[in-house]
Model the fold of this input.
Amino acid sequence: MATYPNTGLKPLEALRASTEKNVLVDVKGRRGYSGTLEGYDVYMNLVLRNANEIINGEVKGVHNRILVRGDNVIFVSPSSGD
Done:
């Protein structure tokens, strides 16, 4: 499994380090979510809490809890909310 440059972290280790922190998730279809990473699995299915749904750069909805299916995930990044 590949590691992230300059960190030595493997992808699932990076997700573990981001648990209970704010993240930005970009998914297929020009859509994204910003919220607290509550959990994940080996398929990169992600559970976000207090998630904003972002479509074309605009917040279109707020969800208490949302499941983002891993095969739609393009990237996961720390959010500036932390």
Remarks:
- The chain has one domain: 11-78.
- Residues 11-78 form a domain with the SH3 type barrels. fold (CATH 2.30.30.100).
